[in-house]
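for ur thesis appendix - DUF1918 domain-containing protein. copy paste whatever u need, i formatted it the way the template wanted (i think)
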Amino acid sequence: MRASVGDRLVQHGRVVGQRDQISEVVEVLGREGNPPYRVRFPDGHEAVMSPGPDCQVVRRKEHEKR
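the 3d part is after this line
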């Protein structure tokens, strides 16, 4: 998985009825776009994440079109 600053991470809910969590990559801490990433959630909370198989990267250009 590779991401850049401005991309979004979508962590899909694991249980029926659980909502996806969307965060924005604010810093790439790994080499060449690899995890871990510092992310910011819509409520302003920041965390360091190493995304698992339940995550998807939405490139900045893709989510700007929406």
